[in-house]
Amino acid sequence: MSTRSTSSFKSLGLPKWLIDSLSAMKITQPSAIQKGCIPKILQGSDCIGGAKTGSGKTIAFAAPMLTKWSEDPSGMFGVVLTPTRELAMQIAEQFTALGSSMNIRVSIVVGGESIVKQALELQRKPHFIIATPGRLAHHIMNSGEDTIGGLIRTKYLVLDEADFLLTTTFAKDLGVCIGALPPKSKRQTLLFTATITDQVRALKDTVQQDGKPPLFSYEVEMVDNVAIPSTLRTEYILIPEYVKEAYLYQLLTCEAYSESSAIIFVNRTTTAEILRRVLKNMDIRVASLHSQMPQQERTNSLQRFRANAARVLIATDVASRGLDIPIVELVINYDIPSDPDVFIHRSGRTARAGRSGDAISFITQRDVSRIEAIESRINKKMVECGKVHDTAVIRKCLSKVTKAKREALMAMEKENFGERKKSQRKKKVDQKGFRT
User: Fold this and answer.
1) Helicase ATP-binding domain: from which residue to which, for each copy (predicted)?
2) Number of domains in the chain
């Protein structure tokens, strides 16, 4: 078996040291996206790679970058931009593991960590920088030539979760980051995504210059047409807004899911915090993940969930993209997202690598049009979930959950939850006013 798998990766053009690293990570056969993209990237092509989450996209860009780096090891060889801190850490882990035998230097540049420490790391010219656009842009604008000067010699730029990075949310910071890198003709640009959007598709028409190979686009299984896997069951529960917490508790403790690992997605940080406290008060092993948490707490929550120390993770969409959490059996859309593609990314946390999983959506009267848009996008009708019934919810847990919610709200008010975010928002407004 090892001969066959070694020759498989060898035939893609990877060196023996990297094949050995992959083998040590128990990765012995290249996936479709890896077979499709690695040879073209090694030949010097810019690349757009589309494949479902969990299909090995990180190795599809990391392996050829590491191969070329090993031929000419130099500082600041590649920059990988990704939308969330957790995803940046996950990508950095893979780069570090793959390059462990080669003294590779990887630097993570994300918010929530010490800017001074990051600047010192960047001054040491790490080979690969894995960053969120906002924090890298901050260094480019504020940290001086000694810190970021090496960026102008980078050979690779990767946009991971490119569909999200190419939205207006990241436009300004992304522009600052790209402006510090070599021009397109002097670097390779690699875009990877689970969703091929119009913005990504438009880049397929990019004209290559200066003798570079043409931009290469590779999509696994027509990504857009296979929006969700066939092993994912999509169900809904119609719920009055004021009893959502009670239904959530009943669903998590019903016979079908009482032992299941679950991610609950919400649209707002305040909702995430309320639910975390309510479920904790109801003796459910729960962790949360949202932007108002200090970075160390976010990292700890993710580790607890991966280790099954927490059975339930409540998250905003910082956890909806790319995170490799293989144990998830249930995804609950407690709040329905306005963008159908966000629903696809959230649901992609379960039913991975051929396993089955459930995605259950809580639908209030205000959500009907959003659900219709989602069903149209995934080309599939949701079916009604029969695991929780009105009378059971009211009889068993409504009063207990109401009491737990009241206690949670009182504790949050006492701790001034949300005040930091308000003061940051006010500071930004004041700064804008000052500049004008």
Assistant:
1) 38-214
2) 2
